[in-house]
Design brief:
MutS, DNA mismatch repair protein, domain I; Alpha-Beta Plaits; DNA polymerase, domain 1; 3-stranded mixed sheet; 12 strands; DNA-binding
Length: 360
DNA sequence: AATGATACTCGGC
DNA sequence: TTACGGCCGAGTATCATT
């Protein structure tokens, strides 16, 4: 979806038409503290982008022409579900990749006609038609704009979609896909962020194709076995073309910003309780029990730290872990001198609840 | 020494 | 001049067990 959160806010507020829409995560520390989640294209045109401090964005947006709106995740998730339903009505192999992104394998088999034999691989004509029709359905049923990339591999399709934004469609042949990827800037590849791009530049690559000339041993040395091998393959034009499968979530966390920096254990534990209630609700919905609990601390210098403990037996959403939490907070404070700015809790190492739980 | 579990950091989105 | 969220999984270091 294009600028998803901002597009939805734009759409449900008639007043917003033509304005800069900035969807914000307010931290509550002070009136404007927090960061930009998503911004529409009018805002991008004046240099506002995701992750930017709200105060910074305000300097670039004339008040009369802009709206700063707090995120409403629940609403976005609801619309996301509607989009998901539209997509699954038309395709069999679908993986929802995030709240606003779907990966589809289009073999030429739509859900209504599963008996039809698959189109030959590389039948991009058929896929292009299916993409146009999907865009139209999302536009007509929900009034929303999206962009679709069609290519032989998932990576190529993702990048084609990004390139075609907004409200775009880009269809690539195998040769076009290879050319686009090898000539692409490093940070445009999903999975390569600023850190990885910077490190690759220091090793002498500026485009994806340049990675081919880097020594695989150094790649593994700098990025580790898995990422190093992935980069090496990427540089040589080899990348996974399959869709993969939907994977289960294996952690649930909630983190929040404290009104004021502190190292008072009571303040920290009070904030933790609030976050924990939310996280536990989620555990209950998802019918998960956990074996590991972690406390996340972000200190004044924005560095993050964690303390965690695993239990021998899984705990349900209603288990009492006050003692463990207090001990983890205590242990952190004993090791770290500074103030805590943000704190969070994370449950992981899940086991499904329900079904057989009684053997031991 | 090999294998598995746990604790923790990094960094992508 | 500064300003700064909330997730999650991947990856690695370290510890425990065999």
């Amino acid at each position: 979806m294009d600028y998803f959160f901002a597009q939805l806010e734009e759409k449900r507020r008639p007043m917003a038409s033509g304005k800069i829409i900035v969807v914000c995560v307010y931290s509550g520390r002070s009136a404007d503290s927090g960061v930009v989640s998503t911004v529409n294209y009018a805002g991008r045109a004046v240099g506002i982008h995701s992750g930017m401090p709200i105060a910074f964005a305000k300097k670039r947006a004339p008040p009369a022409d802009s709206m700063f709106i707090p995120v409403d995740h629940e609403y976005y998730a609801q619309v996301s579900g509607q989009i998901d339903a539209i997509i699954r009505k038309r395709f069999r192999k679908v993986v929802q990749a995030s709240i606003d992104e779907w990966n589809i394998e289009d073999e030429g088999n739509s859900a209504e006609e599963p008996a039809k034999s698959p189109a030959p691989a590389g039948d991009s004509g058929r896929a292009a038609e299916d993409a146009i029709s999907l865009k139209k359905a999302i536009r007509e049923e929900l009034g929303l704009a999206c962009s679709i990339g069609v290519a032989p591999s998932l990576l190529g399709a993702k990048m084609a979609s990004s390139k075609s934004k907004p409200d775009g469609l880009l269809v690539l042949s195998r040769a076009e896909e290879a050319k686009m990827i090898s000539g692409s800037d490093l940070e445009k590849v999903p999975g390569i962020g600023p850190k990885t791009a910077q490190a690759l530049k220091e090793m002498g690559a500026s485009k994806v194709g340049d990675i081919e000339r880097l020594d695989p041993i150094s790649l593994v040395d700098v990025f580790g076995r898995k990422t190093g091998a992935w980069l090496h393959d990427l540089g040589r034009g080899r990348f996974d073309s399959s869709l993969g499968s939907e994977k289960e979530q294996d952690e649930i966390s909630r983190i929040g910003t404290l009104k004021e920096k502190t190292r008072d254990p009571y303040m920290l534990l009070a904030k933790l309780d609030e976050l924990e209630r939310d996280a536990r609700e989620r555990l209950m919905q998802m019918k998960k029990s956990y074996r590991t609990v972690s406390i996340i601390f972000v200190t004044g210098d924005m560095k993050s730290h964690t303390k965690s403990e695993s239990f021998r037996n899984p705990k349900g959403y209603d288990a009492d872990i006050r003692k463990e939490k207090a001990a983890l907070v205590q242990a952190f404070l004993a090791e770290n001198p500074g103030d805590v700015r943000r704190i969070g809790i994370r449950f992981g190492n899940f086991m499904d609840l329900g079904g057989q739980t009684t053997l031991f």
